[in-house]
Every structure is written in structure tokens, then in C-alpha cells.
Write a structure and sequence with these properties.
Layout lengths: L2 H15 L2 H10 L7 H21 L2 H30 L6
Helix pairs in contact: 1-4, 2-4, 3-4
Length: 95
Amino acid sequence: MDGFTVLGLCAGALTTSGYVPQIIKGYRTRKMLDVSFMMVSILCVGMFMWIIYGLSQNDIPLIVSNTIGTSFLATLIAMKIHYDRKLEAAGQGNQ
């Protein structure tokens, strides 16, 4: 493994880990009102496209970081849908 591959893996780990605090906050508060569904969805589609590109180039850092990132974004999307529906059902959707 060369230095640039290590650099790519470290960069991917740093940028991908940025989603973890939002997942934790959403899980603890059971609210995702401050998360934009559109932004998270666009990022998820973009990361999925990076996976496809990484596969075509056999680029391990791109594949690994974007696969994990897409998983985190899919988790945020699922949490957003789930918690927003619960708040709407309780009559608190726009607070």
C-alpha cells in the first residue's frame, strides 16, 4: 500500500466520520427536524455514484469511504423519515 492510498483512506475516514455526531444526536433526541432531507438525499446519491466510479477505477479509498458514507447517509435518511413521522403523528411536526 503506497502513501497516497494511506492518505486517501485517512481522508475518507475523516470526512465519513463527520456524519457520526449527527446520527448520535438524532438517536439521543429522537428528532431530526434540523436535518435537510434533500441535502442528505443528494449527498447519498452522489456518494453512491462515487462508489461506482471507484469500482471502475479500482480505487480502494474511494470505494471504502463512500460505501461507509453512503451507509451513514442512508441511516440519517431512515432516521429523518422515522422521527419526523413520529413527531407529525404526535402533532409536533413543525416545532
